Amino acid sequence: MSTSTLVRPRAQSTTNELSRDVMFSVLSNPRRRDVLRLLRESDEPSGISDLAEQIAAWENDTTMAEITYKERKRVYTSLHQTHLPALEDAGLIEAVRSWEGITLTPRAEELEAYLDDTESVSESPWSTYYFGFASIGLAMTSIAWLGVYPFSQFSGLAYATLLSLALFVTALVHAANVR
Predict the structure, then answer these.
(1) What does the alpha-carbon distance between residue 90 and residue 108 come to, in Å, rounded to a whole number?
(2) Which of 5, 12, 4 is nearest to 107 (CA)?
(3) pTM over 0.90
(4) What angle is formed at CA 135 by the lines to CA 130 and CA 139, rounded to 5 degrees?
(5) Is CATH 1.10.10 the classification given to domain 8-116?
(6) Which end of the chain is more exposed for a tag (fewer CB within 10 A), N or C?
(7) What is the pLDDT, as a whole number, of residue 71?
(8) Which residues form the DUF7344 domain (predicted)?
C-alpha cells in the first residue's frame, strides 16, 4: 500500500540529507507543517488524536473544546492515511506504535528554517535595514553638500567609506542570519 507517492521515491536516498524534492513535498501541505511544528514545540511524544484535535482547532479558527466530531475526524483521517505516513517515509518522524508516541527524528532539523513562524521571520525585516542605510546616506550626503557644519568637514570619500562599511557589515549579518 503506497501512502505517499510524492515523498516515498526520493526519501530512500543513499545520503542522510533530505533532497529538495522531499523537502518541498513534505512542506507543501499545511497539515504536515502543522504536525512538524506541534512536535517541535512539544516536550513529550504526541499521539495522532492530540495532533488532529489541535490542527482541527487551528483550521476552524476555534478552540479545541469547541471543535466538532466531524472536524476532528476529517483531520484525524487525513493524518492517519496520508500525512503521518509521508512524514515517516521521509524519515522525519517515528512512532512507538500505531501513531502513538510520535516524535521528530534528528533529520527533521533540516526543516527548521522553513518552519519558523511568520512572526519570527518578520522580526528582522532586512529591506527596512537597507532602506534605513540608504536614507541615512542620502541625508548625510545632502547635508554635507549643503555645507552644514560638522558634515562639511569630511570628504565625500569618507562618507562613501563609512556607508559602504556599514552596508557590508549589515550584508554579512544578513547572510549569516539567512543560513
Answers:
(1) 9
(2) 12
(3) no
(4) 150
(5) yes
(6) N
(7) 95
(8) 24-96
CB 86 within 8 A of CB 3: yes
C-alpha 146: how far from its chain's center? 46
Q: How far apart are the first and last CA of the chain?
A: 38
Q: Cβ contacts of residue 141 below 8 Å, gap of 6+?
A: 156, 159
Query: 104: which 3 cell numbers?
Result: 521528530
Residue 85 has which C-alpha cell?
505516513
Name the grid cell of 15: 545520503
The low-confidence residues of the chain, meaning pLDDT below 70, are 1-16, 116-124, 179
Dist. CA 27–CA 36, nearest whole Å: 9
CB 55 within 8 A of CB 38: yes
